[in-house]
Amino acid sequence: MTPQDKLFLKEIQKNLKVRFNNLDLLLTSLSHKSFVNERQKDSIENNEKLEFLGDSVLGLIITEYLYNKYPDLNEGDMARIKSVVVSEDSLSAAGRRIGLNNYLRIGKGEELTGGRDKKALIADAFEAFLGAIYLDSKYSKVEGFVIELMADEIDLVVNERQGMDYKTLLQEFVQKKYKDCPKYRLISESGPEHDKTFNMEVIINDNVVAYGSGKTKKEAEKEAAQFAYNKLNSVKRLSNNKTSG
Question: 44 near 31, Cβ under 8 Å?
């Protein structure tokens, strides 16, 4: 490692607020294959193996966070939420927030074509960076780093999923299982014209499965869809448990 590399890594650790015992791990996590290919004589390793490791570590951290903080989520919800949180858009945004893209070691060709701003490249480097932290210290350190950086985003995805997307989730579930679509029907409405409450029911295969209420018909449909989705998934889990038992 050159004196220039050491100064480079000292600056990174200061700005990213993380300290490494093994600086080679940090340097490798930032080394894209385009950079390594231009310096084959230097025996530099690219960050792809660290990226693979970091992807698994990140997946465990997100899953554990969801499992502990949101015990009412089923495995399907957890999988969908995790897929959003670990998406290229999400991870590249996280990498940018800590300024990781400014320290990437990329080849001249990548630099000329805007590689430093490519989402895929930043997201991959972010996972490699997490893999490097994990190997350099311990799980609790990388877990703390991820949660501090991404907890608000995870919570936002959970809230959007719970509050906005149950109609989509229910429709996907019903189409797959019953080859049908949920139908929503207004049961009643109450209150003055400026402050009404609407009550809806959701019907699947000609059976009323759940009810919901809200200040708009759309809100009432969403609540009915949420109750129906959770109810159907509870039945599915019970059925699976009996089968496996």
Answer: yes
Provide CB contacts within 8 A for 5, sequence distance 6+.
23, 27
Active-site residue numbers? 55, 127
Contact (CB, 8 A) for 149 and 141: no
Q: What is the pTM of this model?
A: 0.64
DSSP state of 117: G
Nearest CA among 210, 215, 214, 213 for reference residue 227: 210
Distance CA 72, CA 63 (A): 13
Query: Contact 212/199 with Cβ under 8 angstroms?
Result: yes
In terms of DSSP H, where are the helices of 47-105?
A: 48-69, 75-85, 88-97
What stretches of the chain adopt beta strand conformation (E)?
183-190, 197-204, 207-214
107: burial class by Cβ within 10 Å (0-12, 13-18, 19+)? middle
Q: Which residues, listed in sequence order, are joined to residue 57 by a DSSP beta bridge?
A: none
Give the model confidence (pLDDT) of 139-181 as tens digits. Answer: 999 999 999 988 888 887 887 654 446 787 788 888 888 888 9
Q: How many CA atoms lie within 13 A of 65 on its CB side?
A: 24
Q: Report pLDDT digits (tens) over 24-83.
A: 999 999 999 988 888 776 677 899 999 999 999 999 999 999 999 999 888 888 888 888
d(CA 173, CA 175): 6
